[in-house]
Write a structure and sequence with these properties.
The chain has about 200 residues and is mostly beta strands. Helix content is about 10%, strand content about 50%. Strands 1-2-3-4-5-6-7-9-10-11 form a ten-stranded antiparallel beta barrel. The relative contact order is 0.19.
């Protein structure tokens, strides 16, 4: 219980992570650990995803807006009852109310993780460290029903996700994530820099 949740996810690569990445993923399971980051993101949302902004908000998904240098606060939380790793993001767009995007990471096995969002919808991904950056590779979608993860073949509808995080120094890291659709290309992206505070 004293080991970070993500130590077993990164496996032998954990020892090679830069200090800021270890601090980013330091939360332990079955605790009230909390790590806070602040930064700015450039958010780009293209059609057809942009036209679904109200639906995306209802489903608790990524913010479907376009704006540069959006102030964002991210709180990584553990919970006393599980091994879940919560991502609680608040985007402060200039012309709309603060937008909260909350999800939780749950280890499936090894370095495979599912990011579960509102109503149990989840993105399956593979975590790795390539020697320079943390890489999150798409492994499909799933929905959690009665405690079970059921794969759903939705990549052809929602596209495939990808993300990476790169250390800048001991307190700062940069990140980017995007969604690429097989027909419409890159339909979503946000990228920027954070400081662990």
């Amino acid at each position: 219980m004293s080991e970070p949740i993500f130590k077993s996810i990164f496996g032998s690569s954990w020892r090679d992570l830069p200090p800021v990445m270890k601090e980013h993923y330091a939360n332990r399971p079955f605790t009230k650990d909390e790590t806070r980051c602040e930064g700015h993101l450039d958010v780009v949302c293209n059609q057809p995803l942009k036209s679904l902004a109200p639906v995306m908000k209802l489903l608790g998904q990524i913010p479907a807006f376009n704006e540069n240098s959006v102030p964002v606060t991210v709180v990584f939380r553990s919970e006393e009852t599980s091994r879940s790793f919560h991502f609680d993001r608040t985007f402060h767009f200039s012309e709309v109310k603060p937008y909260r995007f909350h999800s939780r990471m749950v280890q499936v096995k090894g370095n495979e993780v599912v990011e579960i969002m509102r109503f149990g919808f989840g993105w399956r991904l593979h975590y790795s460290w390539d020697g320079e950056k943390v890489v999150l590779n798409h492994r499909g979608y799933a929905i959690k029903i009665f405690g079970f993860l059921v794969p759903v073949p939705m990549t052809w509808i929602f596209g495939s996700g990808y993300a990476e995080e790169r250390a800048i120094d001991e307190d700062n890291f940069e990140m980017m994530t995007h969604i690429t659709h097989p027909l419409w290309g890159k339909i979503y992206e946000y990228k920027g820099r954070f400081r662990i505070v």
